[in-house]
Structures are given as C-alpha cells and as structure tokens.
Amino acid sequence: MRRIVPKSAVSLAFCFALTLGITVIIAPPALAEGGSYTPIGRLVGGSPTDVAIAGGHAYVAAGGALVVADVSDAANPRMVAYCDTPGDASAVAVAGSYAYVADDYLGLRVISIANPLHPIEVGSCDIPEGAFHVAVSGNYAYVGDASQGLRVVNISNPASPVEVGSCNMPASATAVAVSGAYAYVAAAASGLRVIHVADPTNPHEEGFYDTPGTASAVALAGPYACIAEWGAGLRVIDVSNAAAPAEVGFCDTPGSATGVAVVGGYAFVADGSMGLSVIDISNPEAPFEAGSFHPPWGFFWRVAVSGNLACICDADNGLTVVDVTNPTAPAGRGGFDTASYPRGIAAAGGYAYVADDSNGLVVLDVSDPSAPQRVATGPVYLAGNRDVALASGYAYGLDSSSLAIWDLSNPEAPSNVGEVGGIYWGQALAVSGNYAYVADEQYGLRVVNCSNPAMPAIVGVYDTPGNALDVAVSGNYAYVADYDAGLRVINISDPGNPVEVGSCDTPGYAEGVDVSGGYAYVADDYAGLRIIDISNPAAPVEVGALPAYGGYYDGYLRAVAVSGNLAYVAAGWGGLWVVDVSDPAHPAKVAYYNTPGNAENVTVAGNYVYLADYDWGVMIFPKLTNVSVTGQVRVAGMATNIPNATVEAYSGAVLKGSTITDANGIYRLWDLPAGNYIVKAGKQGYVTQTKYPVSVGSGTTYVNFNLGISGRLTGQVKNKVSGANIAGAAVTASLGGVVRATGTTAANGIYLLDTNLPAGAYVVKASKAGYLTQTKASVSVTQDAATYVNFNLARVVLKGQTKAAATSAPLAGASVVVFDGDTPVALLMSTDASGIYEIAGLPTGTYRVEARKDTYVRQSKPNIAVSADSTTYVNFSLATSGILKGQVKDKVSGMPIIGATVVARMGGVILASAPTTAPYGIYEMNSDLLAGTYVVGASMTGYLGQTRKDIAVTAGVTTYVNFNLASGG
To answer: Do domains 627-707 and 883-965 have the same CATH topology?
Structure first.
C-alpha cells in the first residue's frame, strides 16, 4: 500500500554506504517508551545485521532487537526469545553471560543472557555518533563509531558501562577485532587501522595498511588479520609488526566480501549475493577458495562460526545455518526469517493477518496480545505482499500483480482457494460485499468480483489521474488516495462500470484513506492528516487538518484507521499517532508512539490497535476510549491560547501520558489509570507550569494552565586562546540550584536558551569535553527579554587519571601539580570520583607533572611536552605509603615537646617530615614513604637532636618511633 524500497535494496545500499565510509542519515532515536502511548505486545521484525554464537544459541542483531535463536538442531533453528533495543541493532558480541549490542545511533546496550530464554537489558552507554560494531576483551568493549573511529567502554560493571577512551580515524569503523594490546579496525575506504589499547584510557593508532578495496570486516588468525574487502575479496595482513602491517596474500571471491570469521586454517567469508566462501589460509601467502555455499537468492552480510556450524546473516532471508564439518563442501541445513516485514495488517477473532514483504500472508495468534505468536505462513508466491483484508471467513491478499484468496476456516492452516492476475502494481485493497477493490498504482481502481472465491475476476476498471495507493469503500462509493491527485470519489453502484463523481485536491501526497461518519480521513504524506467532508460525494471539501509538525522526522503519513472519535495514523518514521477527530475542523494529536522503524499500516479490531512497522515488526496497542484529563493552555495574564504546547502526566517519575494542544490551546489526555498525577504544560518560549496533585478517577478531570513568557539567554562560546568559535558546547542555566534550561552551541558558537526561564538571578555554565567549564553567577534574566552572556573556554592541555598501584582503583581527591623547573605553575586540588584531572591554560613547553595524595607516595613525571591547543595525557599510579608515627618528649622531665621537627631520610634524601603537635607532642608522616629502610631524626631549638637508624618502613603499615631529647642544643 505504501511506497517502500524493498528490504534487499535497503540492506545493500546501507552496507555499501557503510563500507565506503559514507555518512548514513537515519531517523533520530525513538521517543522513550514511557511516553503517552505504549505497545502491550510486539512481534519482532528486521533484517539481520550481525550474529554471535554461544552455548547452542545464536544471538542475532535484527532491526530493533537482539533475537535469540536455538541452533542446537541445525536443520530446524528457531527463535526462542528477543530483547527490544531502543535503536536499530547493528552488531553483537557475546562474552560470559552478557551480549553487547551496538545499537546504531543509541549506543551500546548490555543485555544479560544468563537465561537465554529471558534476555534483559541491564545497562547502556551513549555513543553519540552511532555504534556500528563491537568487540569485547576483558573488562572493555571496543565500539566502532560511525564517524569518530574507536570508542573504548569499561564494562567491568555491566549495569553502568562508561566510555574511558577514544581514537579517531579517517573513516567509519565498520568492524573491530581485539587481541592482546591491540584493536584491529576495518575502517571502510581507509583500510586496516591498528590501535594500541594497552592503556584503554589512551588508545592511539600505531600503524595502518591501506587495503585496495573497502574494508568491511576483520578477523584474526595468529599474527595475521583477515580483511573482508567489499569488491576485493579476502586480504591477509601480517600484523606481527603493529607499526607496519603488510599484506602477504589475497584471494578474490566471486561476490562482495562483507563478513569474515576464522576457525582453524579457514576463513569463512560472507560474500554478499554469492553466499559463503570458505578460504584455506593455512598458507597465508597463498590463500585459496576451498569450498562454497551458494543460496538461491539473498545477500550474506555477517558470519559467525562455532564447531561445525556457521550462522550467517542473510539480509533477505534472515538467519541461515550451514554445516561446515567439511569446509570444502559446506551444506545448508536450515534457517528462519528473523521476523516479518509487514506492509498491511488486518485482525479478527484472536488472529492478526499480516501482508508480509518476504513471506506472503503471515498469521499471528493474538489471543494474548502481550505475546503475539506466528502460527502460519501463506503461499510463498505472494512474497512482496502489499495488503490484506478480511471478509466472510476469507483473507484477501494483494501483491504487485495478483489478488489471492485464502480460506480461514482454520486460521492456523490457511488454504488457497483462488487468485486473479491482471493487476499491474497493486498497493492496497478493500472488500465490500462480493467485491474486492484494488488500488493499482499505475491503473487506478480495479474491481474484482469474488462471489465465487475460487474464480475471482476483474470486472471493472477506472484509471485515476494520479497513482492509486489506497482505497476505502462506503456504500456505493470507493474513496481512492491518489497520491499527487488527492482524494478521488468513485461511484461503484455498477461494479462493472466505476465512474468518478468528485475529487478533492490535497496539499501533499495522498497515501492512505479511511471513511467514517460522513468524512474521509486522508494520510497526506508530509502534509499530515486531512479531513474531508464527503456528505456530498460530488463535491467533497476539506474541513480540517493536522500538519506533520516537524516534517520528515515527525511523520510522513502513510495510513489511517478511524474508530469512534479517534483516528490512528501510521506516520512512517513518526510511528503511530492518535488523533482526536471529535471536532473534524480541529483535529488534535492526543497520543503517539515513535517507533524506530517505518510505520506502514494500521488497523483497529476489538479493543486493540495493530500497527505494521516495516522495519520493526507488528505492535499491538490498547484502543483508547476515555478522556481522563482535559483543559486549556493560555498565556498568563492574557486571553491568548497556546497551540502545540506539550502537556504531560507523570505518576511519580514515570511518564504516563502526553499530548499537544490544538489550535484553541485545548488538550486531552486519554485513558490514565486512576490515581494522583503531576501534570505539566510547556512550550518553547514559555515557562513550564506544573500542577500537583491532579486526581484522576472514572470521569474527566479539568485542568487549565497559564504559562508565563520565558526570558532568553543567548551568547557565544569561544576558545580562550585562539578566539575560534566552539560548536557543540553545552550551556546550562540554574535558578536556586535547579537546572531550568540547557542548550548547545551551533557551528558559530552561538547558543539560545528561550524556554522555562522565569525572571531571576541565574548561574550559567558553559562546558565541552576538552575544555574547562566556565561559570558565571548572578546573571539577571527578565521575562520576554534577551540577556547576553559570552564565554571563553580554556582548552584542556593536560588530562589523565590517578590510580592506586596496588589495586588499579581510581584515586579521587588527589592533587596534581605542574612545575616549570622547580616553580609550580598550575595546581589541580582534587581529582574527581574517577580519578580524572584536567588542567588548562598552560603555554607550549616542557613540564614536570606530579601527583600527590595522603597515604600514598607522590609520583613525578618529567619532560612532559604540552601544546597550547591539544591535550596531552599523563596518568599516575601511586604506591601506598608507609606510616611513621610517634612521640617526642623531654628526656629529663618526660613532658611532651610541641613544635619539634621529625624527618625521614632514605639514601641521604629527605622523603617526608612532620611537626609534633599539641597537646601530646605526637607526629605522623603518612605520605611519600616508600617501603624500605630509613634514618629518622628529631630536632628542636634548645635541644640536642636525636637520630634513629635502620628504621624499616612497610607500605600501608604504621611504624612507631619515639624520641627523648636532652636540653642543650
């Protein structure tokens, strides 16, 4: 029904772009699932992009999920569980009881697979530029970033992974492998990059090899890296000298080498449309193809091998399992599509029927809507299925060229009873009485007589002026969404002679249509939802519209289904919209769920709403029925309504409902469970207002808001030394210790905070990684006026981490001192909780840097070269100090001596000293005492000094040395 690029083409284009290092623009992340409208069930969907094998299970990154497949029976692999990911899972690595998923633009997700049947996400780490690939070694995950190269994430605490280091490179990191002190990165058009990761906080490139093709994947075989080269086969690179890797052999493959795994003396290459190539690499200088497996069709992308099985990601067919017991003759054993690719959907009687792009008709048991199960698949000849409709115990399925009819007397075993060709490019269908009405993109409306399901026949055709993409039938009229020709009204009272009687142009591209109560509802692509009065079919007229607010990312509307006073809209990248159409002249979005995929179609059956998302599967939502909270949002002190304000209802910290106000400032929150809520209203340019408690019961609660106009903070952030503009700096404004607004500087360094700033005196901060934060206090903000605040940030020139030598634990509270010769020129008083310090403002030069902390031995590093506008990393590992403690007394009277000096020497050098203090003449030296043997002396004016030799000091242990001084000095 909708215009969708076939998934095979999507996969090929996406892979090709990645391997060439092209930036791929993808829809932004989905909104949080705690939003206003949350699915209660889902059947996972998506093309597989990576796979790992562990313990008889294959873990597959597919669409918006990690799919777990039981492959213990290679001939019958089956999906046993999945764990949703908020983004688009692109790669997976398994280590121990965790799977680490590169989740594209939503970073790294850590999923517990301690029970493979119940995977659950336990932690995540943001990777702002997008996570393409991941490898795990020890306590670190090495993530291939979309544009920033390699990111190193500490996963020692899986619940709280944290990035600790990064290394930029000239192209996207499409694959990563790690061994010992090195990470080996396939960097698309930039070949193989060898990154030294012995210090994970300071990874740096040690060498590279510019491969002749496009480096797509990498696997290690002893001192060799095997590179799958898109368009250039398998390259074998000697990496024994990390600084100068060199190619020693290659083997061309017939397809497009995109994935590689190495086991024994063989490299298993996922070779695009040519399947699997097995390369003998026992002689790295002369690799050759020893065997191959060619599927009938598909595109092999990634491969994992364990024991005698190879699991391969086929972009078109899902997971393929190949027996590689004999590598020279690999044999296909089984496979399964990771999910469906739905374009159309209908539901009735506890079953949902999906028009699937790959599998034809797919039948889902939805008797438990929280756990839909696939129970049947229709004939494969309807692969490329566009739409499905139900009527009188039959399912009607449409592909591009034919209409098929299935008997549903047993929904779990549908049987084909008839079909008819003669359709040029079918997109959608509707069934009414004995007729099926087909929207044919090229030839308009086709009418099919189905009175005998075994012998359907085309009896009427009307060639619409545009491209027919959808059709709805009501009474004697068919309403056709005709793309650039808007809505066409066709009289079908004589099915053999359909005739157009009216039309209504729409400003966008009419892609979907539904009819209810004298109105046609048109999903008009980028122009939003259009509501057309069809009470006079000869003269339909638009009476209301709901625009697609943010353009492409907010929704290119594809389909619509109306139930009661609500329209449910499949909004493409914008997910599912719920629109209140009780007043057709003023439709208002009352709920939404922004899927990461492409919402293609929607239907309402019983108490549920079924959404077909092409990239993310089938989702089931509860049908909304009652308004819980409603009201109006206006400007404080004025009778001005505020349209498009956001109203949110929270139960505690959990978002339970959200909506936006209509043109009159009116909002409606639907179906909130009974209880007390925090309700907030806000909009850019205004101060958010919160009301609590708002009590919700069985009826409707009315809550109005009056929003004050916000003040504005604006200015520019620059480099303190060079004066260059700083893009991407974060600016925050706090009032009374509470952050009221945040923003980010643009390419010109300018920021604007113009929301939620009531009048008052603010603390404003500007910060960016690599710079020291600058704070400005007592910044006066006035309602509806601009206050200008500029910042000049000093570049961090020294950065590092201080750890305890004995445990490698970070040392918080250590001080770091920078010396020019013997003169201290910079001091950081205290490292942060992770032991990290940053020092800015040093001119170019060579320095001595020293770290100190009580109970540890100070460490000094000389000859540290610093450049004015780049960061030098200096880490410290402090040994635990010994402790010297004791008392100094008058030898005759036995009274304590206050203010005496006690020093500890090793090799004639004073390493520590301390005074005696009141009231007991006690001294203590707890820092800078290396384990060893010391000479300890005490002195005081008016007394003879006393020295103790051969005093043994042990790390972390207190040694007591007392003194009794005689007078006379």
So the answer is: yes
144 contacts: CB under 8 Å, gap ≥ 6: 91, 102, 131, 132, 133, 134, 150, 172, 173, 174, 175, 176, 185
> Rounded to an integer, what distance in angstroms lies between the CA atom of residue 423 and that of residue 440?
7
Task: Identify the three-state secondary structure at position 125.
Answer: strand
* Gyration radius from the chain CA atoms: 35
Whether the Cβ atoms of residue 252 and residue 277 lie closer than 8 Å to each other: no
- The tens digit of pLDDT for each residue in 738-791 reads 999 999 999 999 999 999 999 999 999 999 877 888 999 999 999 999 999 999
Q: Using alpha carbons, select from 580, 577, 576 the residue that is nearest to residue 564.
A: 580
Q: Tell whether pTM > 0.70.
A: no
CATH architecture of 796-878: Sandwich (2.60)
Domain boundaries, the chain: 46-245, 342-618, 627-707, 713-790, 796-878, 883-965
Classify burial at 167, counting beta carbons within 10 Å of its beta carbon; exposed 0-12, middle 13-18, buried 19 or more.
buried
Query: What are residue 617's phi and psi, to 5 degrees?
Result: 95, -160
**Spelled out in words, what is the top-level CATH class assigned to the domain 46-245?**
mainly beta
Q: CA-to-CA distance for 295 and 299, rounded, in angstroms?
A: 9
Right CATH for 713-790 from 3.30.200.100, 3.40.50.300, 2.60.40.1120, 2.60.120.260: 2.60.40.1120
Digit-coded pLDDT (tens) for 623-650: 998 889 999 999 999 989 999 899 999 9
Q: Among residues 59, 66, 70, 25, which one has the least CA distance to residue 44?
A: 66
Is residue 498 a contact partner of residue 490, using CB atoms and an 8 Å limit?
A: yes
Q: How far is residue 728's CA from residue 747's CA, in Å, rounded to a whole number?
A: 7
User: What's domain 627-707's superfamily in CATH?
Assistant: Carboxypeptidase-like, regulatory domain (2.60.40.1120)
The bridge status of strand 796-804 relative to strand 876-878 is parallel
Helices and strands of the chain, counted as H and E runs: 1, 88
Q: How far apart are CA 506 and CA 271, in angstroms?
A: 47
Which of 692, 694, 717, 713 lies closest to 756, judged by CA? 713
Query: Domain 342-618 falls in which CATH fold?
Result: Neuraminidase (2.120.10)
CATH of domain 883-965: 2.60.40.1120
Cα-Cα-Cα-Cα dihedral of 805, 806, 812, 815, to 10°?
A: -40
User: CA nearest 82: which of 100, 105, 110, 62?
Assistant: 62
**Tokens of residue 293, six digits:** 């497996």
**Residue type present at position 261:** A
